[in-house]
Amino acid sequence: MTFALFAEQLLNGLQFGVTLFLMAAGLTLIFGVMGLINLAHGSLYMVGAFACAAVAAWTGSFWLGLVASLAAAAGAGALVELLVVRRLYDRDHLDQVLATFALILIFSEAMRWLFGPFPLYLDMPALLQGAVTLPGGIDYPLYRLAIIVVGIAVAVGLHLLIARTRIGMRIRAGSSDREMIAALGVDIGKLYTIVFALGAALAGFAGALVGVNQSVQVGMGEPVLILAFVVIVIGGIGSLRGALIGALLVGVIDTMGRFLLPQAFTLVMEPSAAATTGASLASMLIYIVMALILAFRPRGLFAPA
Amino acid sequence: MTREFWINGVLALLLLAAPFIALAFGESFYVTLATRVAILALAAVGLNLALGLGGLVSFGHAAFFGIGGYAAGLLAAEGFTSMPVIWLIGAVVAGLVALATGAVSLRTSGVYFIMITLAFAQMIYYFVISWPTLGGEDGLSLALRNEFPFVNTLKPLDFFLIAYGLLLLALFIFARLRAARFGAALEGARQNETRLASLGIEVFPVRLWAFVLSAMITSVAGALYADLNRFVSPSMLSWHMSGELIVIVLLGGVGRLFGPVAGAAVFVLLEFALGGLTEHWQFFLGLILLGTVLFARGGLLALFAGKAHHG
Would you state the torsion angle of the CA atoms of residues B245, B127, A108, B226, taken in this order, to the nearest 10 degrees? Predict the structure, then answer.
């Protein structure tokens, strides 16, 4: 195992973590502000990916596709909030789970209806093709590096939005006392729609970015959604900082586990058995880490008080 | 005798009569459909114990359903074809897994609990598809249905009666538990944890045992499901399955004795009827579910038998 390979896997883990953050940020904001558990968040990720693939195929421009993914996911999010989710804020978690589970069925089947059963493919934009040589002599794909940079920029931007702007102040106020800020004259309904659409746009954006490396297909959001749940449970539900650290942790542990565990097992068993055992254990690794963290901190690492 | 008592009786008789009527008309396919209802209802009775009585929203019961299924598939491949033995082994494994995951999950509550049970079920799902002897993505097929003493399990009606018998047994256990001190403690913990604690009853072990028992019942349903299809696939472990089980409990009515039976019947019939009408039946199933959650609170039994007596 060379240093370059190790560093490359580490960067892959970071890139994975950053895309998880884009998903987890929306989930944790929506839960923190509205108290809603949204299973359909993965559907918004899928909507973003499909919008990007369709518009990119139609116009020939990935960048227009990216804009379309943001618009489509935010639009779908706002619509869902106004029509359905709004009625769920006062319900218990069980009703929220069921209603958003129903939304997944609706979204998935609607996408299959619109785009057919076959996956779509997204071409990498010409600007981001190829590889760059990083310090230390590591060749790394430019596109993946760009995802890491964009993800970190989004994290910083979100932090500034929440901590420094008027709308961010309202969002924070809304998550700590919704009656009070409604009494102070803030249109809480509109605020909720905005937060939901913002979370949806982030998910759709993640879907479009990932759509280049994977095929765009129905159900693509579900594995990511479940990992995003693991992320926010580890980080503490409602905490943006927890979502970022949790996402990077999950991304790196998952990627490095798949890379290192099969090799580590060759030290104690024969190669074929080591590969199998290592791969199986690697696929369970983040859940084991989650269980360990929760055993010591049942409300996650950075749960808001 | 309350109205709900009579409705439950009618439901039990209807489900029992359905395959006999189907056979009288020579439509053996509907026997399979009724068996599916009985098996899913059995799985949901298990979930109802945790979800309905205990208020524990487990989004990971597919794991226990799948463990039962894989117990049937693996043991059959090894030559152990006695159903009761398979049920027992599957239930013990599911119970142990529930004990371990429950011990971690039950330290949390609310939305954390939902997500953690989901995550543990996903962990088992990924383990199964990555472990070669479990058949990976392809699953396992059973050459023949497993055996039950004095019964030919390959005859659809006989197999239905086994599933129906187990469903009644599970309903009996559910009813007895609910009436017992254990059930009272479990429901008390759901309504007011502090009050229960101040009575000197520890909440955690009560919930943990309910979770374990609930998992064991659901695993038996999983074994039957494997025998019904003569096939075990990883989809039995998928989170869609967990979602469907919750849907079944909610459709029927959370915490009601026959809620899972009504829910399973409606779910299977909806699936069948919509599937016959359109290729995109899941879209309409989603709309119907959404409508049920938003506008028909308390499930179907609440529409016919009034609101539940317990809060």
Answer: -50
